[in-house]
Write a structure and sequence with these properties.
Structural class: alpha+beta
Helix content: 40-55%
Largest sheet: 2 strands, antiparallel
Order of helices and strands: HHHEE
Distance between the termini: 46 Å
Length: about 100
C-alpha cells in the first residue's frame, strides 16, 4: 500500500469503471503513437464485437464526430460491463477568463 499523504475514500463502484478509464486512455495513446485517429483504431479493434461497435457508432453520430472540433480536447470511449454496453463522448472546455476587478 502507498500512503499518498491525503485522506482517501472508497471508490463507490465496481472495478470496471476505473479500468475502462485506464484502458481507453491507453488506446488514445496507442492511436496517437501509430498516427491513427481514436475512432478508426477502435472501429478496427471492435470489428468482431458488433454490440460494442454499434454503441460506439451511435455515440459518435450523436456527438457529430467526424466534423472538425473547434479546439483540441475531445475524446470518445466504449466499454461493457455486466451485460451493458456504453459509450461516452467528452469535450474539454477551457475555463472562462474571469475579468479582473
Amino acid at each position: 500500500m502507498h500512503d499518498p499523504g491525503i485522506p482517501l475514500g472508497w471508490w463507490r463502484s465496481v472495478a470496471s469503471s476505473q479500468n475502462a478509464y485506464v484502458t481507453e486512455c491507453f488506446l488514445d495513446e496507442v492511436a496517437a503513437a501509430a498516427g491513427r485517429t481514436r475512432t478508426k483504431l477502435r472501429r478496427e479493434l471492435l470489428k468482431d464485437k458488433p454490440r460494442h461497435r454499434a454503441v460506439l457508432e451511435l455515440a459518435a453520430q450523436k456527438a457529430g464526430w467526424g466534423r472538425r472540433c473547434p479546439r483540441p480536447g475531445r475524446g470518445i470511449a466504449v466499454q461493457s460491463s455486466f451485460g451493458s454496453f456504453v459509450a461516452q463522448v467528452a469535450r474539454w472546455r477551457p475555463p472562462r477568463a474571469v475579468p479582473c476587478a
